[in-house]
Amino acid sequence: MGSTFKNSALVSLGVIAGIAISMQFSALAQKPVDQAIPMAELRQLAEVYGVIKSDYVEQVPDKKLLTNAISGMVASLDPHSAYLDQAAYRELREGTEGKFVGLGIEISPSDEGYIKIVSPIEDSPAQRAGIQAGDLITRIDATPVKDLDINEAIKRMRGEPHTKVALTILREGLPQPLQLTIVREEIVQKSVKGKIVEPGYAWVRISQFQEPTVEDLAARLTALYRQEPNLKGLVLDLRNDPGGLLQGAIGVAAAFLPKGAEVVSTNGQLADSRQRFYGKPEYYMLRSDGDALANLPAIFKTVPMVVLVNTGSASASEIVAGALQDYKRAAIVGSQTFGKGSVQTIRPLGNDTAVKLTTARYYTPAGRSIQARGIVPDFPVDETAEGDGINALRVREVDLDRHLTNDRDKEMAGARQDELEEELRAAAIERARKPLEFGGASDFQLGQAINHLKGTPMQLSKRAGGSVLAHRDN
Length: 474
Hints:
- The chain is α+β, with helices and mostly antiparallel strands and 474 residues long.
- The chain has twelve helices and 22 strands.
- It has helices spanning 2-6, 39-55, 62-75, 86-97, 125-128, 150-157, 213-227, 246-254, 281-284, 316-326, 419-431, 444-454; strands spanning 23-25, 82-84, 99-102, 105-109, 115-120, 136-140, 143-144, 164-170, 178-183, 185-188, 192-198, 201-206, 233-237, 262-267, 275-278, 305-309, 331-334, 342-348, 354-363, 379-380, 458-459, 468-469.
């Protein structure tokens, strides 16, 4: 039963790490190679190239052959190393900068096979055009989106500034589809949001670690403190956060840890990959306009905290959760994280291309390796009161082909293939649960986090026996 599930289309429901990962950008010159150049293998490569050019059924452009050769060489290393052509490199930079050219909508697949609008981004072209949460996109220009890959749909909706895209929209309660033409603009996406969920208790969510994340977090926390100066507890929500920039993770952890505390360390083959990173401005500030955390209210160093994580929490979010867990600064609540504990360094090449190369592993301040293991919650709590829902369907790093092993902890062979996991996946399919709205009134895990902060009983995961556990001091 295990292998059937593992090889099925359930992968499409998971958060595939590598879309947004903990990264360092480097323009260092290529270092000398100690080993001799394998001339025999290079001659063989040239011979294969020649055979394809002369004998293949149709002509293949030289650029395509060489680009595919480079892509295959890099991609064969591990799931997160890749050659980035001009389009991929541009998309990566846009993602880390927190801005892109498009319509300004958050989307997800729908049960009907269409694209569902989760929400329009504030003051975006989509919002001004009247797009609403819950709308279903059935066509992008003339292309039906029925069962279209969501990444392909995103590509079709993005483009050059001031160009137009036509959307066909189904909206509940309307007898006819809506035809909307929207002009693409540069969208600035906020990665941090938060609110006071009830008197004394705040919720802050980070959806991805981008260049402005530390500044946005400081601004949001300060605003929440002004709204509720008598804070009794804070929930930091990192669920489904796929990662992002290393500096963002360091800055977020530094906001809550003692000043200058070690946040993460790395180790790899190169000397410059063996480093320790601390909660100091020089390690997390990407801009030269001052320390974003300098004026953060002091209460955030001591207020009781819970960090919410799930299987979709990867890389940079695991760095934050691991650091706060090691220092016992926060209780970690949710499910075991993705386990993406490797460093990708971006080596720019010519013609606006780059290589994204795995260069090191990440370690928590206590020396734990995140790779292929992830962060294990202090309190396992399911996605809903009935079970773990869609979260049980997601793959983890250990499920990916060619993943790096954990060098400091014996990797659990077949960790995702045990019978209990497959039963949970089957139950989740039967329930066919829709993605939850994080931070909403029906957010079960958030409710359990607040219970923990209040010192009242919380309902643990069914995998932990479904027992009820009382509050434990952080």
